[in-house]
Design goal:
single chain; 177 residues; alpha+beta; Alpha-Beta Plaits; elongated
Length: 177
Amino acid sequence: MSVLFPVNAERSNSKVAAIFDDEASARTIANALRIELGLAPGQAQVVAPHDRRPGRKRLPDGGGGVRILVRAHYRLGIAGLAVGTLAWLALRAAEVTAVLSSPGLSAALIIGYGGIFGLMAGRLVSVRPDQDPCLIKVRHALREGRSAVVVHVDTPEQRDLAERTLADCGGETIRAP
C-alpha cells in the first residue's frame, strides 16, 4: 500500500461501510471481500458492538485519530516554521526597518506565527468532515447491536467494487469519498 495523503500519512483516504444484523455474516462477508479484492486484513474489518475500541477499526491504518492528528500537526507545524523563517529572511534582505531595528523580536514573532499557522493548517487537514456520515452511521448501528464491515480502499475502482459487493450481500452501504 502506498501513502496517498502524505501530510498526515493516511494510507486510505476513502472508505466504504456496510451494516449487517449479525456479526457472523459480517465476518463472512469481510473475509470474502478481502479475497475478492485482494485486500490486506486491516483494510476490511468487522466492527461489532462488543469491540472495546471500535474507533480504531473505523479509521484508516487502525491507529485511531490521534496518530493522524500528530502526523499532520508535526509536518505542517515544521513547514510553517520554515515558511516563517523564509519570510523573516526575505524581510531582512529587503531591509525592512522594523526587522533591522529589532531582529530578535521580529524573528520570534514572524517565525512563531508561521509555526502557529502551520499547526492550524494541520488541524484543518486532519478534521475530515467528509468521513463523518460514514462514522456516524456505523456508531448508530453499533448502539443498536448490529455489526459493520468497514473497508479502507486505495483506489476509486476498489471503492466502487467494494460498495457493489457489500450491497449485493444485503448490507446497508455508505461510503466516504
